[in-house]
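ok posting inputs for the flavin-adenine dinucleotide job
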Amino acid sequence: MDVRSVPGGFVYACADGASGTTSKVLLSSGIIDNLPQLHGIEQLYGISVHHCLYCDGFEYAAKPVVAYAKGEKVIGLAIMMRHWIADVVACSDGSEVSRCGAEKLRQRGIPLRQEPISALVGANGRLAEIHFEWGPPLVRDALFFATGSHQSSDLSERLGCLRDENGGVVTNPETEEATIPGVYVAGDVSRDVLMISMAIAEGAKAAVAINKALLRRDGFAD
Ligand SMILES: Cc1cc2nc3c(=O)[nH]c(=O)nc-3n(C[C@H](O)[C@H](O)[C@H](O)COP(=O)(O)OP(=O)(O)OC[C@H]3O[C@@H](n4cnc5c(N)ncnc54)[C@H](O)[C@@H]3O)c2cc1C
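and the output
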């Protein structure tokens, strides 16, 4: 899809051939997780391999889990996971963790495995073991990863919307309007709190703001 800013609004052209003009644009194209490059992950992702502790952490409160990230990032993730889950092992998959970071984990009773991971092994979506290039396998029920995400669509960039340091589209929190007048945002595109409830709430706020802007355009005050 292509959308371009023109005086008084926007012109759009969709992949299916539909085209036209509009005075407002609502961006809600979401984001895509950067899946860790781990053998066997595809069959497990979304069932026992997760990216969001807020969404899935509670279910594993009494189960053995892994915090997965490269380098120092694994420290913060593993410590955060300990708020919900007693049995956490941090895995840095062949990347180095500082002595200070390793000490923070040790103080909290979180083991650290730094060996490269060779495979995630499980069945029917359920993780069973993590295999390493050397050393014994690790029996685990789930793996949580922190390897980032990226915008699904570059439309906001092409429209010239300002993005923050995390790649989220900067919006006015009152109206969900982006820095380009007439462009509104709902959901993960802003990379604020990445949850369904937030996406719904932002969609509702943006819809009301768009409606009010159209009323103002038609000569009716708020
Ligand atoms: C595996 C997984 C589990 C999750 N679990 C939970 C949970 O338990 N609880 C919770 O609150 N949240 C959960 N989330 C997060 C939640 O799904 C998102 O926060 C929410 O869906 C964001 O809504 P959205 O509308 O912004 O984006 P999305 O739901 O991602 O929708 C964006 C849509 O835009 C489409 N799109 C993208 N680019 C284009 C384009 N160029 N043209 C046309 N269409 C396009 C996409 O195909 C998609 O359909 C989970 C996410 C994942 C990936």
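notes: Residues 127 and 141 are 5 Å apart (CA to CA). The longest strand covers residues 117-123.
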